[in-house]
Amino acid sequence: MSRPTIVLATALVLGGLGGAAASLRLQGVPNGIPDLAGQWAGRVQFTEYDLSDSSSSSYDRKSCTFVLLVTQTGANLAMQLAPSCPSDDSTPAILLTGKVGNRHFWAYASSSAAGEAEGEILLSGKVSGSGARLKMKGIGIAVDDSGSECEELRFSASRLP
């Protein structure tokens, strides 16, 4: 490839990336719809993967129930997730923050703040129904602080009356 061709190809790629980034920046802010505030109950299924060579099993599947307390101001979410797993005596509550808009939401927790997960958790989900009959379902990933274990999550919940 000649030098002018490389320069032109690089300019096209960078221009395309710049245009994509500009279009992402031009989109509006989350609209806060629907209102997720309240208490939720649900179930999470996860597959835990051990990325180290210290385990004879590379994965383990579990299912747990949870209670989720959500407060919402505009599009901003604060969530307190209290899982209850049969194999764990006491799993501490996990504090997450996120955004909601257009019937979708995301939430994140990191061990960098006190009282939060030992690692990082990122959830993404959608909301269906209306009023008292709201339901949510989604996916997520959790990674421990050492980076040697990760979990793929699938969850669903209903708002409690």
What does this 3D model show about the protein?
The chain is mainly beta and 161 residues long. The protein is built from 1 helix and 8 strands, in the order H-E-E-E-E-E-E-E-E. It has one helix at 3-26, and strands spanning 38-50, 59-73, 76-84, 94-101, 104-110, 119-128, 135-144, 149-159. The chain is globular and about 45 Å long. The relative contact order is 0.18.
Cα Rg:
20 Å
Backbone shape = globular
Distance between the termini: 66 Å
Estimated structural class: mainly beta
Order of helices and strands: HEEEEEEEE
Helix content: 10-25%
Tally the helices: 1
Number of strands: 8
Strand order of the largest sheet: 1-2-3-4-5-6-7-8
Q: Whole-number average pLDDT? A: 82
Reported for the largest beta sheet, the result is: 8 strands, antiparallel, barrel
> Strand fraction band?
over 45%
- pLDDT < 50 stretches: 3-13
Name a few traits of the molecule.
single chain; about 160 residues; eight-stranded antiparallel beta barrel; about 15% helix; globular; disordered N terminus
Write the layout of secondary structure elements.
Blueprint: H1 3-26, E1 38-50, E2 59-73, E3 76-84, E4 94-101, E5 104-110, E6 119-128, E7 135-144, E8 149-159
Antiparallel strand pairs: 1-2, 1-8, 2-3, 3-4, 4-5, 5-6, 6-7, 7-8
